[in-house]
Write a sequence for this structure.
């Protein structure tokens, strides 16, 4: 890899949620905890602090550092399960909430698998998402469609990080759950609203 920036795995999920959130965090180094992110951090700390162990023919490795230089990806995996008999690897990502309607969690998981594949020269066919709120483990097939989506997001995030640009705010339902809402001020930084505001000021001056 040249001297281009690495792409944190978390940036893919941030981008898939909101491109502005991704730029605020990774280009502007803005971060703010709300109760959702604080709880998520606690959950990850608990997962990361677990010792490696072997149960029923499966080795559980926690807080596994990975990278994929060809894709500029770098990050840490919550858990990697290795079946001792077959050598099959399964990345497992822990999430605070419930399964989402978008594919942002699956994209992050798929990128984790791409890192394992590049590092170890193996293929990883599936992963799993474990949701704390619903206490549900969801198996995720890393098929060609999800891989294509993930490569697309990686390319978009790479372009965003290289540009240093921060997109306009969306100001929609996502903002309610966003920890950056105070910093972002989506109502005022979204183009249409600021245009309305400018036009209203202009009218008042006339
Ligand atoms: S507040 Fe809304 S527009 Fe701003 S970063 Fe969060 S989701 Fe994106």
């Amino acid at each position: 890899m040249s001297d281009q920036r690495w792409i944190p795995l978390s940036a893919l999920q941030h981008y898939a949620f909101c491109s502005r959130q991704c730029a605020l965090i990774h280009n502007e180094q803005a971060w703010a905890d709300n109760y959702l992110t604080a709880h998520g951090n606690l959950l990850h700390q608990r997962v990361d602090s677990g010792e490696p162990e072997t149960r029923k023919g499966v080795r559980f490795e926690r807080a596994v550092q990975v990278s994929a230089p060809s894709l500029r990806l770098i990050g840490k995996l919550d858990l990697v399960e290795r079946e001792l008999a077959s050598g099959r690897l399964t990345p497992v990502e822990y999430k605070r909430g419930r399964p989402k309607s978008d594919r942002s969690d699956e994209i992050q998981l798929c990128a984790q698998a791409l890192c394992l594949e590049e590092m170890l020269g193996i293929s990883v066919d599936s992963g799993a998402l474990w949701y704390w709120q619903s206490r549900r483990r969801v198996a995720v097939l890393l098929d060609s469609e999800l891989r294509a989506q993930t490569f697309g997001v990686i390319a978009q995030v790479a372009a965003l990080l290289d540009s240093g640009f921060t997109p306009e705010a969306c100001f929609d339902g996502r903002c309610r759950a966003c920890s950056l809402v105070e910093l972002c001020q989506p109502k005022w930084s979204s183009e249409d609203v600021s245009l309305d505001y400018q036009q209203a000021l202009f009218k008042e001056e006339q």
Q: What stands out?
A: The longest helix spans residues 144-163. Helices lie at 9-17, 19-26, 35-48, 104-120, 144-163, 181-184, 186-189, 191-205.
